[in-house]
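retry 2 of 3: previous attempt timed out while embedding flavin-adenine dinucleotide. Reduced batch size to 1 and resubmitted. Inputs unchanged:
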Amino acid sequence: MQKKQENIALVWFRNDLRVQDNLVLNKAITNHKHVIACYCFDPKHYEISRFGFKKTDRFRAKFLIETVENLKANLKSLNIELFVFTNAPYQSIPNLIDIFKIKSIYLQSEWTAEEIETLNSIKKSVADNIAFNEYYDQFLYHPNDIGMSFLEIPQVFTNFRKKIETYSRVRPVVENPSADQINAIENTTQVPTLEDLKLEPFNTHPQSAFPFKGGETYATKRLNDYFFESKKLGFYKKTRNGLIGTDFSSKFSPWLANGSISARIIYWNVKQFEKLYFKNQSTYWLIFELIWRDYFKYISLKHKNHIFKVGGILNKNYHWKTDNDEVLKWINGETKSSFVNANMIELKKTGWMSNRGRQNVASFFAKDLMIDWRIGAAYFEAMLIDYDVHSNYGNWMYVSGVGNDPRNRKFNVDLQAERYDTTGKFQKLWLQETLF
Ligand SMILES: Cc1cc2nc3c(=O)[nH]c(=O)nc-3n(C[C@H](O)[C@H](O)[C@H](O)COP(=O)(O)OP(=O)(O)OC[C@H]3O[C@@H](n4cnc5c(N)ncnc54)[C@H](O)[C@@H]3O)c2cc1C
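retry 2 succeeded.
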């Protein structure tokens, strides 16, 4: 076994907020006797973005606070202290480096512009000999295993899926042994409250389709309930276009988005379910959807900042409007479509919207109202509990005709309502909400 280094390693957590199956953490513990960790509630993430929305509004912020509290407790059981900051990483991390004489930082690779800018600002604030050890760990299929370069990622999902299903394998989960205890470590840092982040506290809406808590402990509980207790996984393909309640789909996305569960853990549990009970189209379809998640990450790796441009990855020129009144009507559920309105009210009240709902409201925004799709995407970014930069911008581009939909379809929201909300139950549920 390789001899461990004596100096303390620092794990900088961002969107990998778990201790199970965490490659970054595993590398730090394997290479170093002692490990500390940090998480920064970066003020940048709570500012107003260029389209006038908060980058993170209260639903995701609450979920994140719960996640970091849970991470802190779970790391403690591995003898790792989590330091939590509410200032910019380029301020807090160099400070930790000085205090603990850190020489190695471990982190998950991120590639979007803001994340790179943040990392570079830290690099500029620390000595040149600090080693930054970065690993991709947010995928189901690891970039080294997909048999193609990022530039070769197909523009059509099916071609991508077929290639990786044929040539690639999902890696096994990694174990995380504990680090050695550090004596007399002082940590007075605290996980902030919503008020500390200048956001209003709230109670979860009684009809929320996502009433769950943040943190890997709750992600694991949800997985056990959805797979092994209720066996709802076995019906997933039949129910996944549902609109009401907790169980029409897995609801894994918020935990996946901040990394409190890994896609690999979900995959291997599907395999376990298939071994214990049965294998059917539904068990496969959950993995199929996780491949969509990977796909949008690879698309963003391939096209970099184009995913944020109005012409998208196709560089298409449409006559987009920016009508503020129309945007507000869409946000507040006051458009001419009651199906769109019900979905938008659900989002406003709960931070959640089903996939079917998202497709419809986004198509309506971009293809009926013809408003700059990035405004809608920025509103989703603020509100969604499960906001993930790649899935959000990838799906918005797809629906808006500037991304990966080869057929450039438009949703007929009235027909969709008839098909997926035949009795009008979903619309009734949320439209009555505007009354109080
Ligand atoms: C306009 C628009 C914006 C979206 N923004 C986001 C976002 O910010 N974050 C996000 O995680 N998903 C986003 N999605 C994708 C999808 O709507 C959600 O992942 C899904 O509704 C989450 O519910 P679930 O976990 O119950 O999904 P399930 O149906 O149970 O699927 C399991 C997992 O597969 C992945 N998945 C499913 N559908 C998609 C998809 N279309 N694209 C990428 N991954 C998928 C998710 O990780 C999901 O948790 C967006 C879709 C649209 C149309």
